[in-house]
Amino acid sequence: LDISWFTESMSLGKPLKVEPRHCLGDSSSSVSSDKATQETPSYACQRRTPLHHHNKEIVDALQILALSASFQGSEARYLGFTRAASVLKCLPFTLQSAEEVKDLQFCGGHSKTVIQEILEDRVCREVEMVKNSEHYQSMKVLTGIFGVGIRTADKWYRDGIRSLSDLNEIEGKLTGEQKAGLLHYTDLQQPVTRDEAERVEQLVKGALQSFVPDVQVTMTGGFRRGKQEGHDVDFLITHPNEEALNGLLRKAVAWLDSKGSILYHHIKGRSHNFARSSTMDGHETCYAIFALPNACPEKSPDAGTIQPDLDKSPPRNWKAVRVDLVVAPYSEYSYALLGWTGSKFFYPLLQHFERELRRFSLQVKKMSLNSHGLFDIEKKCHYPATSEEEIFAHLGLLYLTPSERNA
Ligand code: DCT
Ligand code: MG
């Protein structure tokens, strides 16, 4: 199978007209175009990754193995499976045989065995074993709690905790965030729809604009990448006059709280220690659980039907929804927008597209990228940017729209 047309289309290997250095972006930019077309670009930020792709079964299987590896603390295996899955998401056709991936980077070895088994038998024994394992199942439940990362879940697992009800034994040791996560677990496990996200947006904008009428609020995260559902709703807040942002988040959240719209919140203040870090960000952030009123209470699914009198609790007219609110100074806004657009693969780990972009910056460009800016380690200077396009240009990468960042 000749895959050169595919690798060419996904390699973003053609130079941008604007500036000669806008080519493939890494050392391989110097190779001949013939060779470049034979190679899958190494970094996900060099490929267009659409939201919908042609190999869901295989990608899902590889991502289960990646998740399981991360639950076991194996970063290398996690990355191996994640990268294979990410490359397959760019494939513009449905795989028929494992031979077709032989020239694709990251799709050899263990991943190739998985691909082959699924193509031949429709199932992969290892994936089935993982899905049925007590460790994987418990870790999925426990890391699904707001405020619980892999390390905490694994410690609990080693202490004999397997399910939510087991947590009653250590209730006194849970953080406020975890208690709220547990209390609203069922709601928070339900995906947030785009319609719900838009209603959260109205609430958030209303609160912020009551203090600063021309504040800028942008929905980021998966919804900006075109997803129709998410596990939360992410917003980025900014204003050209940075003084207008002082205290704004706290005031808006207190206002929403006074209206009964907030079930839990925790505000992390701005930190100035991350200017040159490629792994940490320090924006002022509110991690919240909103009580989102139902769209049409009079048209709730129960309306008009006679309910058996089993549950005496009054019907709820709201749903708990996770919301992240991030404040970025105007000068850092484009970097924060790029960072908070993602994509992510699994919450406790750095998002795959973002992780790849930072890895590319550091390894290939010797620049440290985070949600505050871009720092050239050798030249010891910062690169200001007024748009995401400018950031890609600083890195010598072709621009990818948010919907092409679903790595
Ligand atoms: N992010 C970040 N720092 C964090 C958490 C997230 O920079 N501590 C970025 C990466 C992606 C973006 O914010 C949104 O994060 P998530 O909501 O976890 O990811 P998502 O892609 O929006 O996924 P979902 O649709 O499930 O919410
Ligand atoms: Mg999100």
Automatic annotation (TrEMBL):
GO cellular component, one term: nucleus
Binding site for Mg(2+): D232, D234, D324
Localization in the cell: Nucleus
Cofactor names: Mg(2+)
Family note: Belongs to the DNA polymerase type-X family.
Biological role: Gap-filling polymerase involved in repair of DNA double-strand breaks by non-homologous end joining (NHEJ). Participates in immunoglobulin (Ig) light chain gene rearrangement in V(D)J recombination.
Listed name of the protein: DNA-directed DNA/RNA polymerase mu
Species annotation: Xenopus laevis (African clawed frog)
Gene: polm.S
Parent-protein start and end of this portion: 101 to 507 of 507
